Structure formats: structure tokens, C-alpha cells
Amino acid sequence: MRNQYELKSNRPTRKRADVKAKKPILSGKVLRILIISGIFLCILITGTFLTWGFFTDSKPTAIAPDQAPGKWVPDTQPPIPGDPIDDLDKKEDREEKEWWDSETNPHPIPEHSPVPSSSKTASGNTEQIIHNNWRNPNMSLQPGKPQTSNPKSQNHQEKNGSKQSKHSPPSVSRTLPSAETEGSSDETLQVSVWYPSWDRTQAARSLQNHTDLIDEMNLFAYDLQADGSIKNRSDTEVSNDETVQIAQTNGIRVLPTVGNQFSPSMLHEVLKDEEKRKLATENILQLIHDKGYDGVEIHVQPIFDKDRDLFSLWVEELASKLHKQKLWLSVSVYPKLQDPGSYPVQKAQDWKRLGKSVDSFKILAYNYSWGQPGPMTPLTWIDDILTFAKSQVPPHKIYLGLAWYGYYWDKDQGQFALKHGLVRKIEKKEIKRDENQEPYFIYQKNGKKGTGYFQDRISYEAKLKRIMNNHSEIAGISHWYLGSEDPGVWQVIQEEITSTGE
Known about the structure:
single chain; TIM Barrel; 5-stranded antiparallel beta sheet; transmembrane helix; Chitinase_insertion_sf
């Protein structure tokens, strides 16, 4: 393939015409004057053009670090936040709805709007960011009204009685150690991905292209209800069925995620009621059997710290039921470096109890920078998280969750999602990297600035190598979320993970 340095002009070479000697028409003196005048005029014109070019385009176009020749030297001075990015979100391809769209996204990020000076805080709009917010989540959110997919409720059971599924439990797609056994520390890292319900076209394309590199897929689609029923977040049943078929045909373990509608109060009402907990467990089993899933992932956030023991109890009860039928149980947790944790929602998760019950223990190791520009997952933070995790949970169950998206910030510390595909469409940006190899840029237009951090192949490779070099005994890596990634990460997975297991 040709590169920009090898491209040649397609214009045909012109041959110089033969010049025949002619008798001079003008005298030598006049001819010398004309020649000198012509030379002076050429110098004047050339100088004018050079001067104009210097003042209008004095800076060369920056080459992305992953494309520039030679050794790259990291910039260890991250930028400070500036003004809002002007019309940045309008550059996104509107064929797909953004995952932060409040109508379709389970983790909505609000529309960009000015923040009144009286309400400016260091955290900006971060309270409104729902996914993996362990610092300042909105604990007063009430349940929404997602479309029903598994409407088996307490009232339904009272009228019709408990019914067993007509479907036999599916076999587990991946032969991995259950929660009751010890795993091998020399197994190849497993690759897990979350499959979104709001960006299905991109996710489906990525799945079909990389089925040979994915071990587990988590359908981010279901929520627990106040009555113990399980409902779908959106109208995704048909596409989910097709997705599951593709995945399982290729030997990928499929787990639906069950959330709590980001309502800790609703979750509390279920957890404190023994009958509702049992009903929730039965409905999860019913969902697994009806859809042919291989198990389930419990992905609830946020949680009241007072529900620490009740949440652990429910996971233990669920594990007992699932493991009797050889079904898989996964749980996702907030990151932390000590027990019980520094923030209330971290304290709500007892890593030791949860780790004993589940088959996979997924730590959401991203969103490190909050309210101010910075890296998503510092390399030293990975070490700190996994060092603590391995003291609480058997390493063969631990999955480290990494994000494939980033954020951009405005001068008021507004924080907004930034996907790799959008970054590629921003023109005239100079990409730099911090000491974690995470790329960032300062976007300026019409006097306004914005600072964006995002993820790409290079930053992902740095994280992956850190994990493999220092924590190779863990089970695998989970990725949030499929379809939002730099396509180059799959080559890294192929070279660093798959090749090591051959």
C-alpha cells in the first residue's frame, strides 16, 4: 500500500523543446537591462509568496504519534481545561444514535449547556454521569419504565403459580473453572465485551468481524423491577436473539446483564424483602432458560452502603441456584484500593463474599479522572487495583474492565463522552500523550477550547502489557463497550493475547 511519502504525480513528463539559435533583435545594453529587471521582478514575486505562506501557515500539520516515524517521546504534562468545545458533538455520524442520548442510552450524559456561575462546582456535571460513578452518583434516581421482556411479576405468580421453564438449561459455551474450583494461572487471558443496546449496528459489525477473539459477551439489556420481575431496557429482543445465535455458534459465552435502573432505593426494596429476592432469582433463571443464555451478570449501580450484606446475600442465593444447573454467574463492581472503600457505593460491595460466590468478578477500572481532564485508567492505578483485588478474590476469577471511550471537558468542568470515531472526525487537532500513553488534545475553534482524552490502539496496548507483565494470573479483561473501540485494538489482542496461548 502506498503512503503519503510514496505518492507520485500522475502528470506525464514534458520534454523540453529544442531551442534554435536566433539572431538577437535587441542591442546588448538594452538586453542586459531587461534581463536584470526580469531577475529583480522574479525575486520580488518569490519573496512575496514566501512571506505570505510564512504568516498564514507557520505551523506544520501534526502527525498522530502512531503514524509518525521514529521513536515517540511521551508528553508528561497533561493540559489544563479550557472553554467548551464548539459544536464537537455535531461532527458525529448521526446514522447511529449516541450512547449518551437520554432517550436510548442507559447511561445518559446531559446536553451541553452553560452552567450558571452560582452553581459552578469542582465536579461540574459529573453527578449526572451514571455509569461507573463511584464518587458522586445521584442516589435519588427513581426507576424508569423500560419495555417488558420478562413480565413475570409477583402478582403473576400469585395468579398462575410458579411454573418451570419448558426449555432445558443450555450448556455453558466456555469450559472454565466454576466458582467452586481453582483455575489454572497459566491459561490465556479471556476477552469479554459488553454489547450495548443503544449502538447495535456498530456492535454487531464488530462482533461478526472478531468472533474468533471474543470469549464472552454481556448483553447490556435488562433491569430488575421493584416487584422482582426482569424487564428489557428497550426493544432489542429480535436483534439480541440474532446476536446470541452468532455468538454461541462461534463458542462465545453469552451473559445478559441485569441492572437496577440506576435506582438504589428500588434495589433496596427488593434486597430487604426475602420473597422479592427469591422472585428476582427465579425470574433470572426463567430469562436464562427462555433465551438460551449461559448464565447472568449482575451489574447494579449505585448501591446504598447499608445494603452491603443484603447484596452479598442475594448474590450467594443466586449462585446456589445457578451452579446447581451449571450456569455462569458474574458480578461487576466499582474499583477500589482498600476495604471497605473510600466512598459509600464502594463500601456497599464486599469483595471477599462476592468473590467466593461468583464465577467471574469484573472490576470497572476506568473513570479515574473526574471533573478535570486526565487519563481514564493510569497504569499505576491498574497495579494498585489488581494488587488489592488479588488479596480479596481468587485471581482466576478476576476480570479487569477497561473502557474504549474517553471524555472531553470544558472550562466549567463539564464532562462529556468522547468516542474514538468522533475524535477521528475532528480536524486540525494535535495529538499528545501522557505518561500512561493515553492520547489527548486541546480543541480550539472560534476562541473556544476543549480538552479531550480518548482511547486508541497505543493506550490499550500499554494497559494490556501492564496486566500481562504484572498480573498474568488473572482470568481476563472486559471491555466497555463493543463498537466504540479503535479498530486497531483487535490486532493488539490478536498479537498479545491470542498468540501467547498458541
